[in-house]
Write a structure and sequence with these properties.
Naphthalene 1,2-dioxygenase Alpha Subunit, Chain A, domain 1, binds FE2/S2 (inorganic) cluster, Rieske Iron-sulfur Protein, 8-stranded antiparallel sheet, alpha+beta, single chain, 2 domains, binds fe (ii) ion, globular
Amino acid sequence: MVSQTQEHAAEAPVDSEALAGSLRPFGASRMLPREAYTSQDVFEWERRRFFDDGWTCLGLSSAVGSVGDQRAEAVGSGGVFLIRADDGVVRAFANACRHRGHELLPCGGGTVNRSVVMCPYHAWTYRLDGSLRKAPGFGGPGFDPSAHGLVELQSVEWHGLLFVNPSGDAGDLASHVEGLEDILAPYELGRLVTKGHHDYEVAANWKVLAENYQECYHCPVIHPELCAASPPRSGENYHHPEGAWVGGWMEIREGFQTMSLDGRSGASAFRGLGEFRRRVVDYIVVFPNVLVSLHPDYVMTHVLTPLAPDRTRIVCEWHFAPEDANREGFDPSFAVDFWDVTNRQDWLACESVQRGLSSPYAVPGPLSEQEDGVYQFVTMVAAAYTGRAPRPASPTATTPRGATSRGGADTAVDAAHVAR
Ligand code: FES
Ligand SMILES: [Fe+2]
């Protein structure tokens, strides 16, 4: 059980000397201290400081796409209840009835097209704006319905993504996502339709999963299907130290239309993409927990929900343009099957990393030149552990903005295209 002092501390309960090793310049740095991946105290601290006090992305806001749609998700220390209200705006509330606290929906569950919110315990009902509508058996002069509305939490829809900040302490979302807009905007996430869904539970710390996503050093060893579709040493990473995200792009191999097992796409390229973006895939981690993979013809999101220091729920979804998704007979399996194979290869590796790190004799290791995306993620976490805003350090101190190689050399795509 974490103490109150630890829970509210500005600095994470990790060894400061080991943490200094994570913050050294690229090439001389080390992974995060072992306890970052294994300690219950660190896990509780992260839940408070990263997930309650920061902006947490819940994936595409189309999960509550129409007025009356409702969902509940586990975020940080508690559940968040989401509603698309009558004015078309998504609102977030604590997922706790104002009577005796029953969840309004189980976390991970949802319902659509409801005119009210009804608590399943004693049937208190709320309007879509969270105000109390009816409390059976109450109504006397001593009861003021306006004092019993749902507890509203801060939430923002941004380029089709839904962010919540339960404590309200995170400040402006704009600085959290600074530099990301130009990359995301051409994919028009706000109009995409979800056509594939996988729910995984992985025996690994959430950061092991995010770090694994940020490098392709491991691809030639464990991902034959991915390497057939994308040269593992292609591409470049972005450096936007002003925003709480890291990412980069990789090429799609000649002869392949997209990332699929046979190279064929069952959809069309997004209408807003130029020549460059039709031949690459962007891999973006929005701190702390959402992975957004931008393909020419589909977007894949992974939402990581930390369950324990060594356990993470991952909801992976595939999103398509409406002109494809709503077509009779549309089959998303070309995208879903490719990534399900690749995801499972990654989960096996990450679970093994977690078991390795559980040894008290495990020592944080160095990063290769192909792991500068991991360096950016690790330094972002390490900065937050010291009480600063989560921002990545640049692997190349002299070029704070720009790009370094994502997978190594051998890229055939001109670096000047990065911003397109
Ligand atoms: S707890 Fe919700 S109506 Fe009683
Ligand atoms: Fe991988």
